[in-house]
Specification:
Enzyme class: hydrolase
Protein name: Ribonuclease R
Distance between the termini: 74 Å
Strand content: 25-35%
Strand order of the largest sheet: 3-4-5-7-6
Number of helices: 18
Organism: Sphingobium yanoikuyae
Keywords: Cytoplasm, Exonuclease, Hydrolase, Nuclease, RNA-binding
Subcellular location: Cytoplasm
Length: 771
């Protein structure tokens, strides 16, 4: 017994005896640090030719080094220097510094040491990485920091859960998700200080299938004013708080002198800004007058004056870095998340009536046929005569409202626009006049109405002036061979055109794929449809067949506008792309102004070397930010619509079918929007065929057919403001189920997969397969 105990005590001491030629601690450390590939126990043993007992000794050595804080173990059991980063590891992108993405290790367990900020080096086009993305990367130390070379973009890990705390009859707490795509609630394991009904952020814990939620942040009452916007901000990770340094720089920049003597003085002109009635900032104003040059008889001169944001937001500044990180302003019904701090976005850069403002002026000469004969750009000082709502400007032109600017400003603007419209009609751009929803709130943030925004001539007038200035900016930069951040809209791809052809065939409309596709091709289709019931859904389908527009320094033209060269120049307060175009114009046309006396503000307002070198990367980033903003804005509108309709649950509403799937069809309330599902299980006991090509469900016995675009009356069964979801039923169904806010968890679960009363029809209409 005593002998056995001695052997047990002696065993560890024997393990520490190193064989001859066994690597030292430093040799092991050097190998791990210098290895190009992850170094686990097997790789180390192979490198030093270790076998048998030597491998056991190596295992003990590595354990000792880990215990002593020299080594750590990462993914795939590979070792790396403690406080260092594995050679190949998973990183999460957390920030953007200028144009460089910053990542941190997804797992970091070095006690007492902050996770390193690793610069991501992208080579070639790997797919528009952005904040929140996960990558598998090869890492290396460089100077005092670390570099990461992306190898692969990974699927996003389970993100924070955003939802509302619900208490069931049995007292258990559940997290109800705000995302309508997530159909499962999550049990709450740790509620913290949150209470029933709170909107919260939670992190998932446990392993599938037993995932629970631990509440980390309380966002408040989900029905309070601004909550719908907060949901979108948190869900999409939209930066909404400015760092203190950025706010301070905005205050300093707003005090820069205008340099009136160095700018073209346009304060004598009756320039007007025409904007939505609820506009939060005003970054464009317009003026026009008949051209007095006899060589341009019947023509006009026009000025599109844009806020000179590049004067205040300079390359390399904290303001610039934050603006690039945001990419654009995000507009919600109750608030705006601006690209720039309020000192600039809604004050010094906003073209307020009666106040001197710095502007970048685009001077246009337009001939009698509406063609822009010439253009030039200048840094100017302007004083806007008035800021008018679209409705007021239109009422003045229509003689329904008196306005002292009617003769000196509005009538010349409309007369010049008549020429621009003539040129537009000749160009024949894509004409999809689809309704836009507008949510009107009272001063307490409660919904007054949800309605389709009226489309006026005043809207089209401003659009055409802005398009003319945008084209001029692109062409002016091309003339100087300067870099351009183009707004690109490519021709639709064949796969989408094939889908459109199949869809149009269900209306007996021919669409030849062999023809050259132009915007006019689609306009002719719309004319064929005329004012029939199907017009809106056909226009929607045409819109879905289009490619998504994006920003890039390579010119691929703008298909929708039927333009060869197009850039965004007219909204630098709210779009970073426009700011880059302004900077390029400053450099190309020598429009630089004296350097600021405040040394904290960079000297130049033209493109920096970094701007030049990173145009492609920045284009990808801001295109991604734009898509993020559009999705957040659309989802928020859906939530407001659902909140507005929640008072009408149980009522029969006029609706239109917007989509059909094998599990049911989606419909929208006429004039309001907001898609809701009619489950096929509620259509009765008969079997339904799913006609994929015709996008329809058809009853076998009755022949009842539900197809895209069909108008019908439906009962609103549910309206869930938290996730923006609606559910409808046919009017002759039994009484509607209650609001989801008071739903009963004991009711039967919806069956996943194809409903039992569905049969499927493939791509050929009229033929079906029985299962």
């Amino acid at each position: 017994m005593a002998s056995t105990q001695k052997q047990k005590k002696a065993a560890p001491a024997r393990a520490k005896v190193r064989p001859a030629g066994f690597p030292t601690r430093q040799q092991v450390m050097d190998f791990i640090t210098e290895s190009d590939t992850p170094a686990g126990k097997r790789e180390i043993a192979k490198a030093f030719g270790l076998k048998g007992q030597e491998k056991i000794a190596l295992k003990a050595l590595l354990k000792d080094m880990a215990d002593e804080g020299l080594l750590d173990i990462g993914p795939a059991r590979a070792f790396h220097k403690m406080g260092g980063v594995p050679k190949v590891t998973v990183l999460r992108i957390v920030d953007v510094d200028d144009t460089t993405l910053i990542a941190t290790p997804e797992r970091w367990e070095a006690e007492g040491q902050p996770a390193p900020r690793i610069r991501v080096v992208e080579r070639g086009k790997r797919g528009a990485l952005t904040i929140g993305d996960r990558i598998l990367a090869r890492t290396e130390e460089a100077g005092k920091g670390w570099l990461a070379h992306p190898m692969k973009k990974l699927a996003k890990a389970t993100e924070m859960l955003l939802g509302v705390v619900e208490e069931m009859a049995d007292g258990k707490l559940w997290l109800r998700p705000v995302d309508k795509r997530i159909r499962k609630d999550t049990p709450i394991s740790d509620i913290g200080t949150a209470k029933k009904g709170d909107l919260v952020l939670a992190e998932p814990t446990g392993r599938p299938p037993r995932i629970s939620a631990r509440v980390t942040d309380i966002l408040g009452d989900p029905f309070a004013p601004r909550s719908f916007s907060l949901i979108a901000i948190h869900k999409h990770g939209i930066p909404h708080a400015f760092p203190e340094a950025v706010e301070e720089e905005a205050v300093a920049a707003s005090k820069l002198p205008l340099h009136e003597d160095k700018r073209e003085d346009l304060r004598h002109l009756p320039i007007v800004a025409i904007d939505p009635v609820d506009a939060r900032d005003h970054d464009d104003a317009v003026w026009a007058a008949p051209d007095e040059d006899p060589a341009n008889e019947g023509g006009f001169k026009a000025i599109v004056a844009i806020a000179d944001v590049s004067y205040y937001v300079r390359p390399g500044s904290a303001l610039d870095r934050e603006a690039r990180k945001r990419g654009n302003s995000v507009y919600f019904p109750d608030l705006v998340v601006p690209m720039l701090p309020h000192q600039l976005s809604s004050d010094m850069c906003s073209l307020r009536a009666g106040q001197d403002r710095a502007a970048m002026a685009c001077h246009l000469v337009i001939d009698a046929q509406g063609k822009v004969k010439s253009f030039r750009f200048s840094r100017a000082i302007i004083r806007v005569a008035a800021v008018l709502a679209y409705e007021n400007a239109q009422a003045a032109i229509d003689g329904e409202q008196d306005n002292e600017l009617l003769e000196p400003a509005l009538k010349p603007l409309w007369a010049c626009w008549a020429l621009l419209r003539k040129a537009r009609e000749k160009r024949d751009p894509l004409a999809l006049d689809l309704p836009e929803r507008r949510v009107v709130l009272d001063e307490w943030g409660k919904i007054v109405s949800v309605a389709v925004r009226e489309r006026l001539d005043a809207h089209m007038l401003i659009e055409d002036y802005m398009i003319a200035a945008n084209v001029a900016a692109a062409k002016a930069l091309e003339a100087k061979k300067a870099p351009v951040m183009y707004r690109v809209h490519e021709t639709p791809g064949r796969d989408k055109l094939v889908a459109l052809k199949e869809y149009l065939a269900t209306f007996d409309i021919d669409f030849a794929l062999g023809q050259v596709i132009r915007p006019s091709t689609f306009n002719q289709l719309i004319k064929k449809v005329g004012e029939s019931e199907e017009k809106e859904q056909i226009m929607t389908q045409i819109l879905r067949s289009q490619t998504q527009a994006y920003y890039a320094p390579q010119n691929m033209g703008h298909f929708g506008l039927a333009l060869g060269s197009y850039a965004h120049f007219t909204s630098p307060i709210r779009r970073y792309a426009d700011l880059l175009v302004h900077r390029a114009l400053v450099g190309a046309y020598d429009l630089e102004l004296p350097a600021p006396k405040d040394r904290a503000i960079p000297d130049r307002s033209s493109l920096s070397q970094e701007d030049y070198e990173n145009m492609g990367r920045v284009g990808e980033m801001i295109s991604g930010h734009e898509r993020r903003a559009m999705e957040a804005e659309r989802e928020t509108i859906d939530r407001y619509v659902a909140a507005f309709l929640s008072a009408h649950v149980g009522e029969v509403v006029k609706a239109r079918i917007t989509g059909v799937q094998n599990f049911g069809f989606f419909a929208t309330v006429e004039g309001l929007g907001g898609d809701g599902l009619v489950p096929v299980s509620t259509l009765g006991a008969e079997h339904f065929f799913f006609d994929e090509a015709g996008k329809a469900l058809q009853g076998v016995e009755s022949g009842d057919r539900y197809t895209v675009g069909q108008r019908l009356e439906l009962r609103l069964a549910e309206a869930d403001p938290i996730n923006g979801a609606l559910r409808f039923e046919l009017p002759d169904n039994p009484s509607p189920r209650g609001s989801p806010l008071k739903r009963d968890r004991t009711r039967p679960k919806i069956h996943r997969g194809r409903p039992t009363n569905i049969r499927h029809i493939g791509s050929s209409r009229g033929k079906h397969k029985k299962r």
